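Action item from last week, closing it out:
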Amino acid sequence: MTKPEDKMDPEQEYFEKRAEAELELAQSATHPGVVKAHYQLAGLYLDIVHGEAENPTSEDRDKEEPEGADSIED
């Protein structure tokens, strides 16, 4: 029996189904680039489901830019 806390959020369920669909598409594709793209999409969907998706805040993005990145010198 499924416990209420084990139930998946409808949004997470959607992304899990999308990941499964992408895996099926990857397995049936013949072009290496298409296979890779489907596996990458599946991975992104699974990251969302498992809470590992990167969603950096603007503060985090600012930290990642190298010093002087916004200044343009001619």
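Closing note: Residues 10-28 form the longest helix (19 residues).
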